[in-house]
Amino acid sequence: MKCDLIVVGGGPGGSMAAKTAASAGLKVVMLEKRQEIGDPVRCAEGVSMKGLNRMVKPEPKWISSVVKGARIYAPDGKRVVMSESSSGNGYILERKVFDRGLAMQAAQAGAKVLVKTRALGLLRKDGAISGVSALRIGEPLQIEAPLIIGADGVESKVGRWAGIDTTLKLPDIESCAQFLVHDASIDDEYTEFFLGNSIAPSGYVWSFPKGEKLANIGLGIQGSRSKPGEAVRLLRQFMKTRFPNGKVVEMVVGGDPCSGPIDSAIADGVMLVGDAAHQTDPFTGGGILNAMQAGIIAGEVAAEAITACDVSRSGLKEYDDRWKEDIGKIIAKSFQLKEFFVKLTDKDLNHLIGSMAKEDMSKMDLAGMLRVLFRLNPKLLWGLKSLII
Ligand SMILES: Cc1cc2nc3c(=O)[nH]c(=O)nc-3n(C[C@H](O)[C@H](O)[C@H](O)COP(=O)(O)OP(=O)(O)OC[C@H]3O[C@@H](n4cnc5c(N)ncnc54)[C@H](O)[C@@H]3O)c2cc1C
After folding, report:
1. Which atom of ligand 1 is nearest to the CA of 152?
2. Which of 3, 111, 211, 334 could join 106 in a cystine, given CB atoms 3.0 to 4.6 angstroms apart?
């Protein structure tokens, strides 16, 4: 099999890259090791409405629920409501359907999608990358192409095969556990975030409603403060106190990179996209939209590089420049925020949330809330001055 571009991984990043490159006229093959794209889901499925609508027209079946705002709870139970909009400001997706929908769009744009096909390594000819060796439904397969996009998620191997350093240090990975829960007390219209070092050390607990009293309830804790089974243990403990009657119908565990932007996501003949390039927002843990945005940029640069017959590192430099200028700047800022907030004590968190008691935060987004917090608590948040003002 021969093509212009091989995309390894059929998540949101890979599908957007494949769709963009195929739409620009490239012959694209996308490999996905799972037999069903999007399944199993390792995600809380929350995205901003505005962010998603900017990149695709969402199909109604991709969306479990529309949320109207967010509530954040301090360790002492005080809460603040933010980002409220009566018409909704966020989607909780149905990723099994969403990921499949994006892959379908890539196929409709002309990409060949091979499921149950695991990339095993890169092929090289005269020292240059010349394709991917794979295992397709138990059979070996070689696909030739001068250019590879590695969109193979947090456990990415493509980067390592190409010599890009994607090692994650323990403090830079969030260890996550999540239950899909049915509980009569779930608010179907608000996402909820619970802070506290005893419930989620250097992380937080989330509840993202999926409609009809179902919610993804999960937590992420800093890898360096975790140990085997710890995320699940803490989540069970949280459920006992906050949702004691909750019925758990599914469970997932997984890691979320929160390292900040990598130095470079390119090598000769290779670009990395999404979690594979640590493009997740380190403060919120959200990575779907960044993966999609990086996928679009990588697809465009792939088309230019193939047309110019230059897939060398310097021919692909535009990808590094563009994603760093776009999502990279926000990721770098979020990393500094994360580094600051993971060190706060429960007393600090109580103080910060409590300080907003007399403010109307309901229409503010995260950046607006941080500005208010800084105005009210300059001494405590002085270290963030350059990021907030
Ligand atoms: C518990 C948890 C909750 C999260 N919640 C949210 C959230 O609410 N909102 C949000 O925006 N983000 C969230 N994230 C992060 C989000 O899931 C990821 O950032 C996002 O999926 C990244 O997309 P991607 O395309 O880069 O990678 P992925 O979605 O991980 O896709 C990678 C694909 O590559 C395939 N693959 C891997 N290796 C190979 C191989 N060798 N050959 C072929 N295929 C391969 C995999 O099977 C997979 O389908 C969460 C993460 C976790 C762990």
Report:
1. 34
2. 111
Query: Is 324 within a domain?
Result: yes
Q: Is the CB of 148 under 6 A from ligand 1?
A: no
- How many A from CA of 354 to the centre of ligand 1? 35
Range of the domain at 15: 5-42+96-168+262-338
CB atoms within 10 A of CB 170: 11
Quote the number of domains for the chain: 1
Phi, psi angles (nearest 5°) of residue 134? -145, 170
Residue with CA nearest ligand 1 atom 41: 119
pLDDT at 10: 98
Among residues 146, 119, 147, the alpha carbon closest in space to that of 133 is found at 119
**CA 285 to ligand 1 centroid distance, Å:** 11
Sheet of 270-272, strand order: 112-114, 28-31, 5-8, 147-150, 270-272, 266-267
For residue 77, the Cα-to-chain-centroid distance in whole angstroms is 28
pLDDT per residue as tens digits for the range 353-364 = 999 988 999 888
User: What is the per-residue pLDDT for 389?
Assistant: 73
pTM for the model stands at 0.96
Q: Output the CA 153–ligand 1 centroid distance in Å.
A: 5
State the Cα–Cα distance between residues 239 and 218, nearest whole angstrom: 10
Q: Tell me whether residue 47 is in a domain.
A: no
Task: Report if residue 330 sits inside a domain.
Answer: yes
CA of 190 to the centre of ligand 1 (A): 24
β-strand pairing of 128-136 with 139-144: antiparallel
User: Nearest Cα to 175, choosing from 217, 226, 233, 218?
Assistant: 226
**Per the domain annotation, does 163 fall within a domain?**
yes
**Cβ 90 under 6 angstroms from ligand 1:** no
**d(Cα 339, Cα 282) in Å, to the nearest integer?**
9
Look-up of token digits 């390894």:
8
What is the overall mean pLDDT for the chain? 95
Which of the four pLDDT bands, split at 50, 70 and 90, describes residue 376? very high
- Average pLDDT estimate for 218-224: 93
**106: CATH:** 3.50.50.60
Residue 387 is predicted with a pLDDT of 87
Which candidate, 301, 278, 299, 302, places its Cα nearest to that of 290? 278
